[in-house]
Structures are given as structure tokens and as C-alpha cells.
Amino acid sequence: MVEPATGSADLELSGLIRRFGTVTALAGVDLAVRAGELLTILGPSGSGKTTLLKAVAGFEMLDAGDIRLKGRDITLAPPARRNIGMVFQNYALFPHMDVAANVAFPLEMRGMAKAAIAEKVAWALQTVDLAGYGARLPRQLSGGQQQRVALARAVVFDPGLLLLDEPFGALDRKLREQMQLEVKRLQRRLGLTTLFVTHDQEEALILSDRIAVMKSGQIEQLGTPEEIYARPANRFVADFIGESNLFRCRVSAVADGMATLTGEGGLTLRIVAGTLTAIGSEIGALLRPERPRILVPGETAGNMAEGEVVEAVYLGESVKYALRLVGGGSLLVRLPFKAGHGMLSPGQRLRLGWDPADMHAVPWS
Ligand code: ATP
Question: What are the structural domains, with CATH classification, of the chain?
């Protein structure tokens, strides 16, 4: 499903197809990236993310489709003529050249005058917080610093598009989080239209203006992080993004805008009906683990379930509990951790409640 872009599109991909023998890496991709937005391609290994990025960069030829950047058809243009900045996981800096020479390289390729190059390089290094590092060699820098040099080199020539392919994959968690924020800030400040590739859904949720979720060479859903998380289009997206409880149910009644669902083990759920009208139809009812709350004795809610703690995992601000429900089935919940209250232990019973609006229906088949 592809939504039309409402803002002005900077990068327009239409009908991209790429086959490798019997494998279809891109199975007809349509996508419009708006000016100044950071759009993430998210998907499991082998879904076609890198092939898509390489096609945009000009390193992968297409069997069909066109690519337009700022209105210009670049489908057949050589990589160097596309005016695209790129950062990949393995830094790919020139090891024998110092930082300034690395950053200057794309400008020299463009035949810029020496004085203008020096000025631009100083600006780019300042932009990534590496002013004063120009004379170092890449091996004299940390992994994070090397990635910043790569970023400076990618933005120094004012590219029309920035491509980032798992750029933080080799960094440790703390540095990765720091770099994510830095890149986001830089991208905003420079207003750079950016296509970002990752298989890390948390990273995608944090960084993106919009996310395109890919599977088997196709875009399964395109939307904001909130839309993708709260209203996934299908079971694949629901399962791939974040943790979820997905109940296989049948619609047993619809009245006053509410649908009643019957799940396995006699579970009864209430959900905002929306487009659910067909009694007897099979759906998946999605409930994110952070939605349920503990009910105090006597309290009721639109949806209720009682269960026993099977496993508890302390996560800092919250605790994740796996519950076995009375009547069968299981439920994953994430409850706030209150200092001084301790954690629930395996075997303890609790009653949980959540609202019909906390649930979202996806097609089962
Ligand atoms: P990962 O996250 O593992 O990098 P990906 O989503 O980037 O995966 P691609 O690298 O685009 O996926 O690969 C998509 C499909 O195309 C895979 O099945 C892959 O094996 C296949 N493929 C990619 N490049 C080639 C190639 N040069 N020759 C043959 N098959 C290829």
C-alpha cells in the first residue's frame, strides 16, 4: 500500500523492479520522499533495503522503473552525476588521506577552486563537531569520529539527497544513540532530504519522519512512526514493529460503534468497530504491552483479563511481565516500575484492564 505524498516530493521512485536470477529483490516499489524529510526503509534481512538504496545511488541497475531527484530523471545517470551523499556502515574513508583530504575529495572531483574547498571543508568539519581534526588520519580516530568524517564528506557538496545505510551498525549502544541524535539534528538543520536504511525498529521509530516497512521487495506500509506502531496495516508490520499481543478472534457482534470479539480460550474483547462490520470474520486484535493497567479490587474496564505471572523482566522504568491467562492464552504487559513497591513474582495473580480504543484490528489472513 503506498500513500500519495502530500508535501512536495524530492525523490520519486516508480515501479522499481530488480531481479537476481529467481530472486526478486525489488518487486515494484513506488515511493515519494518529501523535501527535507528523513524517511526510513525498515525491514528484515533480505527484504530489499540495500538493493533499493543502491539503485537510488546508481550502483545497482534496475530491470524496470524510474528514479527522479528534484524533478530530474536520474534512472540512467552514473553515480557521480546524481549529487547524492552517502554514509555506509563500514566507514569507507580513504585510510592514507587525512581527515581534511577525505572531506575535500568530493569537492576536488567537482573541480572546485582550492580556497573554496578549504572553506567548505572547515564548515563541514565544524558541522560534525570535528573542527581541528583535519590533519589526523582515519586510524587516529574513534569509530564514532570516523563516522562523523564520513558524514562531513557526504554533506560537504550540498547534496540533493543523503543516503544512510545502517551507519551506526558498528558502534556500541551508547555511541549509537548519541550519533542517532546528532544525525537527526544535522539533517534537520541542513534540511537534507534523507533516505535511511535499517533493520533496527527502535532506531527507525526514534529517527524517522516516516517509515516504509519492506518485506520481500515490496512496501507493506508507509506512515509516521506513530501510525506504524499504533495502526499497523497487517500482521507482518504489527509483529515486526515493537512487541505485541495479537489475538486471533472472530467478530461476534457489532453495536453502537463497538465490536465484540471472541478469541481462543473463550476470551471476549471489545474494540472500536471502525470498519469491522462482518459478523463471523476472522481478525487479529493487536494490544501493545504498555496499554493494560492493573485494576484495583472492584474496578472494571472495557476489556479485562486475569492471569498469573510466569516471568518478570526488570527494564529500569518499567517491568515486562509474561502472564498466563485464566482460560488459557498468554499476555505480555509492560507496567511502570514504582520504586519501593518491588516487582510481582512468578505465580502472583493480577487483574488487568484496558480500553477498547487501546486495541487495533488487522486482517488475520
Ligand atoms: P540485509 O538487511 O541483510 O542487508 P536487505 O534488506 O538489504 O538485507 P538486499 O541486500 O537488498 O536485502 O537483498 C534482497 C534480496 O536480493 C536477497 O534475497 C538477496 O539475497 C538478493 N540479492 C541482493 N544482491 C544480490 C546479488 N548481487 N546477487 C544475487 N542476489 C542478490
Answer: 9-240 (3.40.50.300), 245-363 (2.40.50.140)
